[in-house]
Amino acid sequence: MATPVSEMPSIVSDLRASFATGLTRPLSFRKSQLQHIEALVDENLEQLSSALTADMGSRATKIRVCLDDVKKQVRYMMSTLDKKARAQWEATPPDAQDVGRWKIVPEPYGVVLIIAPWNFPFNLVMVPLIAAIAAGNVVVIKPSEVAANTTALIADLIPKYLDARAVRVVLGAVPETTALLEQRFDKICYTGGTKVGRVVAAAAARHLTPTLLELGGKQDAQAHARARTVRKCPVYVHKSADMPIAAERTLRGRFANCGQFCIAADYVLADREVMPLLVQEMKAALPRVCGADPKTSDLYGRIVSEAHVDRIAAFLQEEHGGTIIAGGKVDRDSRYVEPTIVLAPTADSKMLSEEIFGPILPLVPIDGGIDEAISCVNAGDTPLAAYVFAEDKNVAERWVERVSAGGMAVNAVATQLDNVNVPFGGKGESGMGAYRGAYNFDDRFCFMISFTHHKTVLIAHTGKRRALADLLARIW
Ligand code: NAD
Asked: Which Gene Ontology terms describe the biological processes this protein takes part in (predicted)?
């Protein structure tokens, strides 16, 4: 049920009044709310699992990882809050000794708006909420109308566990969000597509509200027409790569959540001479990643809605010019799209020029090695993530240094967030600002203060140090 648009002004003004009383300032209040979030997860595991399964076809392991991620963020904030919320004295240079002493005082923004997408419908609400509460803000949450079961559960549970003077849930789609965005907020955190990100940024600009935008960075048709090149999360497989690892980790990084996640591997550029071996290894790895029969396997999920099944099927129905080497089947009634690998589609095919956000992996052979891969990626707007597989350190270093991206992994896909000490965020079309863990508090690394983007880079173990492979299998 949608929140009446007439209620938006009072929801925001009530929260603003609470904030003005200083309700959320004491660390004891913030910590108690954080503990209530952990209890919300612990005491509603079954309901959360059913809702996530109904919306996303999520399997038990994935649900556990998602819920653990929320609890990990709570525990991190609980254990570091005393220190992070404390004012820090800064060193005084000799020429300012006579002037005084400086300290940096962390201050909550005030009323924060969190708008979330459907693809991780619980986590992408809760993780920013944890950050906003820990920092002492009051919060309006607008979960996604597309993930209807999870959103209904969030709306039911939040008032039972959190103080309604500090956190409110607004339900609805475009009309309700538009009405909400007319209100003045002190910070907006938006996760979703780049096109709507522009709408949010424009609304925020009217009130000079700072925004944290976590975007896809890969679906803006207008921007695409300008640059005429792919701008999605790339994987480059160099000829020196450990091919079994490159194949399996790329598949996990594409087919987890049926490809419905923002840092998924969107396409693979591979040196032509190793493409046959990569294809062979991918075919061998596919049953391990998605099950021998993905349709009945516990290892594979479902597409969020029939409309999205149709959108994804269109990539396969058009004349894409490639060869389907695995998968290709679509069953609309059960919202199932087979994990599909397409070899050498044409550059102007939809699957190489639009955001797929589904389980299709295009493979593109290239002849110019690392330099061609870098120029191909940098020719477009900045992706949220860019991945390289190479045992040749010079190649990996060149990729890290030269490719512009929100974050990266060397010899891994999509596991760069497995560390509470690193930031997550995009650059350019893939977003602005960063958050999670240690960076929830550190505005110094956000665009407003710093002029350097801090690109998180994971250098994953290969060879003898296969611990990460096990970790990956556990996670995805
Ligand atoms: P979306 O942009 O369609 O919707 C996200 C939210 O915005 C929803 O809550 C929706 O109600 C609201 N919304 C939609 N249209 C609106 C409008 N015109 N005005 C105001 N609000 C509006 O995104 P989605 O389809 O829910 O999610 C998929 C997208 O999210 C993908 O593009 C993906 O790449 C991106 N994504 C990014 C990240 C990240 O961290 N960078 C994470 C997950 C998903």
From this structure: aldehyde metabolic process
